[in-house]
Amino acid sequence: MKKSLCVVGLGYIGLPTSVMFAIHGHQVHGVDVNHKAVEMINNKQLHIEENGLQERLEEAVDAGNFKAALEPVEADVFVIAVPSPIREDKTANLDYVRKATEAIVPFVKEGNLVILESTVPPRTVEDVMVPVLKETGLDIGKELFISHSPERVIPGKVFQELVDNDRIVGGINETSSTMTKELYESFVKGNIHLTDATTAEMAKVIENTYRDVNIAFANELALISDKIGVNSWEAIKLANYHPRVNIHTPGPGVGGHCIAVDPWFLAEIEPDLSKIIQLSRNTNDHMPVYAAEQIQKIAKEQFIHDPKVALFGLSFKANIDDQRESPSLKVIMELVEKGISFKTYDPHIKENVASNQTQSMDEALEGADILVILTDHDEFKQLDPANIKGKMKNRLVFDTKNALSLDEWKNAGFIAKRLGDSKNG
């Protein structure tokens, strides 16, 4: 049965989710506080980058099933997909969730379903949303139904994973869960697992915390390998041939709206019981500092006293434009503190949000002593060192993402180093 939906939040999750519902026949009213984003969406223009989004947005708008606005409207279903960041003190900032819930209160009516997609600390639905929604005067669980169904997608593959991934649905009661399951079945092919709201919140935070802890382990292996003369990338690859081992890869830090944020939700709730989680977070947060120190060390080893650095990659992962919590931005801050000159380049970043961002690769490389790879975009993997060396003052390259063939760059006359690989340093 086709529904009318009001989706609050048209960012990296809300917009793809909106167009998916729209192209599957539902009538979707999208809401965002960003005037420019709303205008662009209604003109079938993108304010974010995601594979397959442009054509799906055009299909949804042309069919008359999707439009964006600044205010909510009445609907059968309300979906909240707003940010849930952390504050400077690492505590959860649920202001966006609370304000989005408050915004829909005047429009909610009997029989409606409210779904929270944002990743949040356990008990957010029960302790934050339910009290606000009681202001509707409706009997929660009998006249108004509420659930949590967290997104489980990766940027760059959002549409594939929206369809194919299993989905968790946690309602405040069985009816809420069932209603939510039936809605998502309009496009989800993966299994839909039903539970309660707090367990669903916990499960999503567990997923991202597991990955953060795993990456922290890989980063520790990289730090150890740099000390003892081992290639951690090769060692991890070999270890992963074991049928019960799956170690992630090291790098200059962890970014994104989930892995770099969600573990703090558990640390905030139970600080004395989350020692491994906190240590892992701190380990990963330290990696941009370590990367900046390695850049400085490489320059000193070659007696370059005032190095010029070309930083390639600003987004937190490959082939996207998302810079949320990007370790590249933290590396930049460290270089600024050290007084090291740099220029940045990222083919996926259109707006000049980073310090010294250039719009061309050649501009970033001009006069550079060290090329540093911070994001493993496909464009960077295809770089030809023979074409690069003539543009730089000195031929040094530091790869923090294992994106380059070091042998190829060394054969082209570069001194090539890789994070976590002192064997080839």
UniProtKB/TrEMBL annotation:
<dbReference type="GO" id="GO:0051287">
    <property type="term" value="F:NAD binding"/>
</dbReference>
<dbReference type="GO" id="GO:0016616">
    <property type="term" value="F:oxidoreductase activity, acting on the CH-OH group of donors, NAD or NADP as acceptor"/>
</dbReference>
<dbReference type="GO" id="GO:0000271">
    <property type="term" value="P:polysaccharide biosynthetic process"/>
</dbReference>
<keyword id="KW-0520">NAD</keyword>
<comment type="similarity">
    <text>Belongs to the UDP-glucose/GDP-mannose dehydrogenase family.</text>
</comment>
<dbReference type="InterPro" id="IPR036220">
    <property type="entry name" value="UDP-Glc/GDP-Man_DH_C_sf"/>
</dbReference>
<dbReference type="Pfam" id="PF03720">
    <property type="entry name" value="UDPG_MGDP_dh_C"/>
</dbReference>
<dbReference type="Pfam" id="PF00984">
    <property type="entry name" value="UDPG_MGDP_dh"/>
</dbReference>
<dbReference type="InterPro" id="IPR028359">
    <property type="entry name" value="UDP_ManNAc/GlcNAc_DH"/>
</dbReference>
<dbReference type="InterPro" id="IPR014026">
    <property type="entry name" value="UDP-Glc/GDP-Man_DH_dimer"/>
</dbReference>
<dbReference type="InterPro" id="IPR036291">
    <property type="entry name" value="NAD(P)-bd_dom_sf"/>
</dbReference>
<dbReference type="InterPro" id="IPR014027">
    <property type="entry name" value="UDP-Glc/GDP-Man_DH_C"/>
</dbReference>
<dbReference type="InterPro" id="IPR001732">
    <property type="entry name" value="UDP-Glc/GDP-Man_DH_N"/>
</dbReference>
<keyword id="KW-0560">Oxidoreductase</keyword>
<dbReference type="Pfam" id="PF03721">
    <property type="entry name" value="UDPG_MGDP_dh_N"/>
</dbReference>
<feature type="domain" description="UDP-glucose/GDP-mannose dehydrogenase C-terminal">
    <location>
        <begin position="310"/>
        <end position="406"/>
    </location>
</feature>
<protein>
    <submittedName>
        <fullName>UDP-N-acetyl-D-mannosamine dehydrogenase</fullName>
    </submittedName>
</protein>
<dbReference type="GO" id="GO:0016628">
    <property type="term" value="F:oxidoreductase activity, acting on the CH-CH group of donors, NAD or NADP as acceptor"/>
</dbReference>
<dbReference type="InterPro" id="IPR008927">
    <property type="entry name" value="6-PGluconate_DH-like_C_sf"/>
</dbReference>
<dbReference type="InterPro" id="IPR017476">
    <property type="entry name" value="UDP-Glc/GDP-Man"/>
</dbReference>
